[in-house]
Amino acid sequence: MPVGLSVDGALGYPSPSRPFRPSRYVPVSAATTLLVGTTTLFLCFTCPWLSERFSSSIPLYNVVIFLFTLANFCMATFMDPGIFPRAEEDEDKEDDFRAPLYKTVEVRGIQVRMKWCSTCRFYRPPRCSHCSVCDNCVEEFDHHCPWVNNCIGRRNYRYFFLFLLSLTTHIMDVFGFSLLYILHHTKQLDQVDSVVTMAVMCVSGLFFVPVVGLTGFHIFLVARGRTTNEQVTGKFRGGVNPFTHGCLKNIAYVLCGSQAPRYLGRLRKPHSVQVQPPFLRPPLSEAQLEAKVLDNGIQQSKSSLEIMESQSTDADPPPPPKPEHRYPGLPHTQNEECSLLTEAPATPSLYKYRPAYSSPGKNHTASTHSSKMSRGNSMTESPSVPVTTGQPSYRSDPSLSSRGGAGCRGGGEGGRAGSGGLGGASAFGGRSYPSFTDTLLQSAAASCSSSLRSAHTAHNALGPLISEGTTSTSYKSLANQTRNGSLSYESLLTPSESPEFESAAHELSPPRPHPPHSLSTAPGAPPILGYTSPFLSAQQREGSLQACPAPLRPSPNRAFLRPTSSPPSRAPPLSPRARSLGSPPPGPAPGHTPLGKSLSYGGGVELQHRPSRSGGGTSMPNSTIKQNVANHNTHSHKPAGGVKKVTGVGGTTYGISV
Amino acid sequence: MAETHSLQDLRQAAVASKVFVQRDYTSGTICKFQTKFPAELESRIDKQQFEETIQTLNNLYAEAEKLGGRSYLEGCLACLTAYTIFLCMETHYEKVLKKIAKYIQEQNEKIYAPLGLLLTDPIERGLRVVSFLHHAALSVP
């Protein structure tokens, strides 16, 4: 079972298993130890005298407060903050690579931007942010708290807030009663009890200031109806907060709102489809299913086949189908594998509906055959397809997560800075955990606000540089390294081993230094012809065309396709897509390694993932190899003349006129 | 696993198109879906029916998120029991979610399945979208 898939039928495993990092657990362990340890010492050494001297209700009261604190601490630590499950592949079908990075919605009259999350593959709802520590989008993200080693979001903010309140109370109680003890034992300070009590006093006194500061800060946030993230990033500074309902209502919402449901780990009900007789089609024969598989994207109804028949006289491939059809064909491959492989290159059943066309038939046969072979090879890879989607964090090279990553990090850092300003250890990046005393020293409420401001400005410095700079031309593809690309198999099928194809391939093969720029004006616009390249190179590799230029060599996808793992692509290291934006793609670079071999079909499978459109010459290093597919596809094959229609990402057709 | 596979089977068997109904954020972050009739469904279902379904869903979610005596009592009880009450009791929201699931199933059986549509529960997608799944060919293997 590939990692990343939901292994138990539960819905929406949030993110793939990440490497175990013990450093993440240091602050939470320290916090737990301090809380429990100090309180235990207090209860054991100080409270006996207090209960004798004053009343036994004192220890009882302290125990109750302590338990309440602990309960809230545990809830804040272990409760799902409101993690959104990763969106499924089909959800972003409408949002191809040209879709903008930001979507604006109006919230109570105020324009709010929703950013595309490349990891989670949806537009983040308002107030949602992606935590880079947890690698999840969290609803109403407040911050990532290292002291509980958890994100604070919609579901557990209440517990976090109550934890702060109760901890403040508890610290005050412990400090106060310890002081009382000491004041009554000034002559017996050398006793064990006194020593312990003094230690307890010191610890509680030391933590009092940062905790109170943080509590005060959050009281302010709750009253204003803001999250730490929003406060730190200055979203509503000088503006109106569309999410506030007034002070009292905000407090009521936090304290008295109903417990929000979790989105993860829900058993998904099987979608049982009861089909009424009128809607039943005659069961498809295996050959027909094959045709569906192979002709993914082609209209599958008989009537549309007739349309295709008329279209088949054209040299151009039929236009790709709507993106909706993109995915259904894909899972077919797993079932059809055996039948595909065992069969000789048969005439696809699709053509059973057509009059005998020699060349298209051949084309289709040949393509079917090779596609079958490659499908066979790629079968084992299809599980990896969801892996790609399921493991975006593995795939995304941090250095390349230009927009998305930076945005994510910005959010994460901003959030962390929020908590880090006060007592939090991680100011930026969550990696450094300064010593305990450092955090304490930082912690005054005044310093809290100043550090928050500095965090905020730092964050802001990050943000504008990356997000604002390319707003007008910021496409999802730039940030999105893991999006499904759409590749109509049709376009893969069309170039075949027929002589016509060879000549066409010849025309197509000379790499163009600059893919049609008119079409690439928008960053992320695909150099069109690239989509034929996987199949082209497949054919070429099978010996038909030796004249293929260097770029049309074994694909990086081979590295990705494990069963046939080959040396990784020679793709040059890629600068973040953002930077490559706008600059004319250098064309198929020498290190450009398009799909090759029969594995191109696996590459075709891989092409289901939306490629980045940063231009032909750029290619991603190892982890985003799948992007190479599209990148290499984008090294354009120049059409001979007229208008060539090629399928682009998301099923879009590009007509190239040469 | 079974659940996952059945959905995959569904996909395999059907040429499915999906229509997504996005969240309506005009009133804030409360859970509400757009009642705007999507163009793709024009030929398939009645606009009135669609709006009624979505509106009912919106009302149910509003009921789930209502800030009232019930949620307050639940919160107090949870506090008093150190949140151990969550081990035994179902929260108000969860109860309404069950109601919603039942409603969706009922709508599917009565109205949408005969039209070749399947309405999915938005909770599966984190309450971000409601999807109408259309099956063109429906011989489920």
From TrEMBL, chain A:
Its main location: membrane. GO terms for molecular function: protein-cysteine S-palmitoyltransferase activity. Residues 565-575 have a biased composition (Pro residues). Keywords: Acyltransferase, Cell membrane, Lipoprotein, Membrane, Methylation, Palmitate, Phosphoprotein, Transferase, Transmembrane, Transmembrane helix. PROSITE patterns: DHHC. The chain crosses the membrane at residues 25-46, 58-79, 159-183, 195-221. Residues 360-398, 534-543, 619-633 have a biased composition (Polar residues). It holds the Pfam family DHHC. One of its GO terms (cellular component) is plasma membrane. Residues 404-417, 648-658 have a biased composition (Gly residues). Its EC number is 2.3.1.225. Residues 306-333, 351-417, 490-658 are annotated as: Disordered. It is a multi-pass membrane protein. It comes from the Eukaryota. PANTHER family: ANKYRIN REPEAT AND LEM DOMAIN-CONTAINING PROTEIN 2, PALMITOYLTRANSFERASE ZDHHC5. Belongs to the DHHC palmitoyltransferase family. ERF2/ZDHHC9 subfamily. This is Palmitoyltransferase. It comes from Cyprinus carpio carpio.
UniProtKB/TrEMBL annotation, chain B:
Residues 19-130 form the Golgin subfamily A member 7/ERF4 domain. Keywords: Golgi apparatus, Lipoprotein, Membrane, Palmitate. GO terms for biological process: Golgi to plasma membrane protein transport; protein targeting to membrane. It is found in: Golgi apparatus membrane. It comes from the Eukaryota. One of its GO terms (cellular component) is palmitoyltransferase complex. InterPro entries: Golgin_A_7/ERF4, Ras_palmitoyltransferase. It is a lipid-anchor. It holds the Pfam family Erf4. Its main location: Golgi. May be involved in protein transport from Golgi to cell surface. The ZDHHC9-GOLGA7 complex is a palmitoyltransferase specific for HRAS and NRAS. Belongs to the ERF4 family. This is Golgin subfamily A member 7. It comes from Cyprinus carpio carpio.
